[in-house]
Amino acid sequence: MLFSTLLLVSLVGGVCASCRDFGIPASTFTVEVRAFQVQNSTLVDLAHTLVKPVLPGRENGSFPVYAFLLDHRDSKNRTRRIMFDLGFRKDPSNFAPALVPYFTSGAVHFEPSGRDVTDLLHAGGISLDIIDTVIWSHAHFDHIGDMSKFPNTTRLVLGSETDTSTYPTSPNATLQESDFAGREVVKIDFATANLTFSGLKAIDFFGDGSFYLLDTPGHLAGHLSALARVTPTSFVSLGADTFHFAGQMRPRPALQNNFSCPGHLLEYAKEHISTDYFWSPESRDGAFDVHSRSQPLLGVSDTPDAFIADPVTALVSVEKLAAFDSDPDIFVLASHDISLRAALPYFPASLNDWKAKQLKTKTVWSFLDNTNPGFVFSPINGTH
Predict the structure, then answer these.
(1) Which residue numbers delimit the Metallo-beta-lactamase domain (predicted)?
(2) How far, in Å, CA of 378 to CA of 58, rounded?
(3) Which CATH architecture has domain 27-368?
């Protein structure tokens, strides 16, 4: 018994150095994280609204749409289930009228699978009645789903700066009365936060160190992300729309120090990343060098029609989240990272063993692989 107690103290007290560096308190409480790929979507001729530069032939932006189911078990062995984001609703004609033209014009296209996340939950044997809480990372249409399908007992949690005006009271609103009707709505106010990780204000959602909501502003007013503890010393960072392409986060020196880029990808990058658009100190015309690149390949869009509300603030949030991305104990997963689409284990599989299965090691550089849809660093015509 004494040995077991000492072992537990050792595990908690000796939590990974990176966690101490970030100021994340030690805890043995965890959440189980499971991912759904709800839809695949394409922004037609609109990639520039999210990212820069957009190379010739890359004008369409294709993205998966992820949602996450989290199971939390407290000290009394009681389980609470929450959803982090919901994806699209399957009937876009029933969005608020201000959003419908995106779909009728063909600007936003998603595969007509005839399903939404509630269908996926039902198919997986998860009743909506046991979903305690839905958390919106933000109020864009590809995250809010159709809240009217959830019972009134399901709380809705969102950032305090979220614009909660609704149609028809506000004719141009993108949310509807049915999103809120009859349910408890909780606004997370990060001004009350007493924790900060990597410069990000954090709120301990369950009060036991298993799941934190993080203030990651810039993409849209009220945008938040999350940090889920999946073992006592490892985490999944649910980055939401802090970034959209892996190339907005990578490469960086700290990442390269902890995760070596495979040689075959270095060689491919050398030959195929366009030096007309990307450069590094050791690059030469027609031969790009990854190792000497100290900044991410891609930036955050700042065009007048961008889906980014505050590009300067959004870029700061990316920089702060990058410290997580470089850490061996944190797997950063954005809501639309297409470089991971084929590699993620989806529901009913769990993401909790990502480190044991070396998922990050196997995927963190996959966006440089020409067979990966996350590779967007050469013109489609292949010129340099």
Answers:
(1) 64-264
(2) 9
(3) 4-Layer Sandwich (3.60)
